[in-house]
Structures are given as structure tokens and as C-alpha cells.
Amino acid sequence: MALRGRRYVVLASAIGIAVLVLLLTRQGPLTRARDLIRGSGNDGRPSVRYLPEPDWTPPPIRDPFPTLAGAGTWPPEVPAWNRPRKNVHKQYGLEYGPPLLIGFTRAWPVLLQAVVSYITAGWPPEQIWVVENTGGAQRANAEGKLTLQNPLFLDHGLLRRLGVRLVAAPVMLTFAQLQNFYTHLAHANNWPFYFWSHMDVLVLSFEDGLEGVTPPAGDPGYRSVYELCLAALERSRQGPVRWSNVFFSYDHLSLVNREAYDDVGGWDVFIPYYMNDCDMHSRLTMRNWTQLDARAAIVTDVSAVLDDLRALYRDPSVEPAFTDPNPPPPPPESRPSSSLSARDESGEHDETTRGIGRRAGPEPDAQASFQKLKAVADSMFHYKHGDRGRNTWQLGQHGGQGEPYYYPARGIAEASDVLTEAGREVFRRKWGHRDCDLIDGGGLKYDDQWRVAKDW
User: Fold this and answer.
1) CATH number at residue 133
2) Which of 79, 168, 250, 354 is most buried per CB count within 10 Å?
């Protein structure tokens, strides 16, 4: 009898072990098995397991133009040597002033810096179009219902005081869709040619001159970024080359020939982000459109923001310095420094001239401030291209909970990463080739799309 009892005990133990093994193999880690053993919540629903919160949250971003934040305030004057001449586009054979389109989805301080830098470098503000790409949040922005820490925040009133134009995308668009929306705007407004720029740039005209491009500011024949871009458009129109784009520092600033984009059917919307430029520019080349290069300005790829944008207006009371809107976690036991170099982030603080008449040039102090701005812009470039990745600036704002059309910053970033990788896979399947060198490395032609077996 005792022997039979022991057999039952052994059998029961074996069954228990088998059940436990089954739970572990089917449910994964021990913690998941333990959750199942503990059972559901008190209301009968499964327990929810949350992701860990980040160990580091960046400090709230600051307004980089506080003196212009309030209603009724107006920006300072553009430096005299960069003020655009009225209707100067007509001197370059154009009946309209070609627009500069800048798309915005998130990171207001970065966009504002780009817009102000273009204006102070000489681009007419009324020819700058900010394309708000925030989905339904655009209405909330227009009504002033979003706050500065919301990633989708955009200050409509401030942009209007700067004199730029605002246009809203109908829904939130990917990069490829946004490019096609630019082409749509070009048709709707009868623009055969237009410029567009990334928003994460800081632009300075060649105020100290560049041989073969422009003399220094104040000398006869000096031309700002705007006039040099108009000159590049004029040369391209009159030249023998069948051209699609003129790149100024690659596509950080780009001139578009609308006819070329129409010819290849626009940007591929199934490749929403990275690799879509490889696809688009390769298709243009396959259709015998040429991408040209020109010099028009110092266009710096940046992730940080000047602490006070009055520095771009050469306000002598402002020392150029910059802050990362999404700084890295501080090192253990670090203490904030009382002063930082321009390279640090801080929480404190070939063409002949046209005979253009001499305009007021920068005074010695203004020339010195320009050299400081150049040095700071260079430091900002190297800061962005360090070891943290180029797009950390997109994650600097973490507020907005409870506001209209709120979407978690974490979700925007992760969802964009998923779409980006999906687009890379579409590119690979579309061309049967993994890399950007579709023509030289893949030997591919325009009509080979979606017809080629993979070559790796």
C-alpha cells in the first residue's frame, strides 16, 4: 500500500514537472510563466506588462527666440548687406519669385533656426513656405492649443511675424509623400521650378567672399544665398544639359525642375524614408536627367540650436553658442560646467559679377561676429556627426499629454524606424539590389523595376 502511494506521488510529481516544462517552452522566459501561474487580474483580464521607462529624459527644450515669442513683437532687421532687393528675380529672367519649401513634422526650435538663418542670410521671407506636416495637430497649432514641449508644436503667429508663408499638408505625410506634395504645390501655383530645404540646417551666406562665386559682403557684386540660387537657376535654364536638380550641399538645399519629377512619376511612396533618394535620383539618371551641383551658401547640417537666434541678426549683445535639444545622459557624478566652448552643448546659456552696386557692408564688429557664427556652425556640424547618430534632435520634446492629436514621442520615433526598415526592404525587392549604386553596381535600367531577381 505504501509502495502504491509512493508511485502516485512520483506520478503526480512527473505530471507537475511536465506541465511546468510545457509552460516554460510555450510562454518563453520564466517571468512570463510566473505571470500565467499567478493568473489574471482581479477583474478577470490578463495582467499588462509595461516596458521600462527610459533611464534618462532630456530637460525641457527652451525657446531660442524668447524676444519674439509674445504677440505684438517683431523681429530685428536683417543685416543690411543681406537684405534682398525688391523683385530681383526679374533680373534673372523669372516672372515669379521661386519659393523655398521647408517641411515641418516635429522639433520646432530646429525649424525656427533654419527659417531665421535663411532670412538673415538674404532669402525673402515671403518666398519661404513652411509646409506643416503634423496631421490634425495643424488645426490645434493654428488655434494655439499646443505647448512648447509637444513634438508637434508650431508657432503660427511667430512665423507670420517673420513674414513667411504657412501651408498645411492634408494629412501627416512620409518624406516621399511630402516631396510629391511639393510637386503638387508647384502645379497648383504654376511654379516650373522651386527650391526645397531640410529643416535641420543652419545657413550663412558667403559674407567673407568665395573665389569664383562672390566677393565679400559690402564689395560691388556681392550676392547672398538667394541671388546665388537665382543665378544657378538661370544658368541651368540656359545651359544645354537636361537637368532635374541643382544641389547645394547635396539636398540640404535643392533646386527642382518640376518637369523632371513628372517624367519619372514622382517619388516612390512605398519607400517612405531612407533609400528613397537613391531610388528617385537613380530613376532620374536612368531617364537621362542630370543632377547638377553649385555653391550658394554655407549650408550646415545640424542637430543643435543656437541659444539665442538674435545672434543671426548680429545682435552685439548675443554671443553665439548652441544647445542640444536632446542632450545625452550626463556622465556619472558629473557637474555642470560654468562655461562651455562653442563645440559643447550648454544648458545655460564660379561666376562673374553682374555689376550690382555696392551695398552697406558689415562693420568690423559684424565681420568678427560672422566669423564666430561660422566657427559655431562648424562645431554644430561635428557635434551632429559624432557617435550618437544624426537624428537625435528629433527626440528632444516629450510633452503634450492631453493636448489635441497627442502622439507619444516614443511612438513617433519607433514607428518611423519600422517604416524606414520596411522601405529599405521595398527598395531591395523593387530593384533586386541592396545598395544605392543601382546603375554602376547593379547594371539596372529604368524599366527593370520589380522585374529583377536579387543579386546577393
Assistant:
1) 3.90.550.10
2) 79
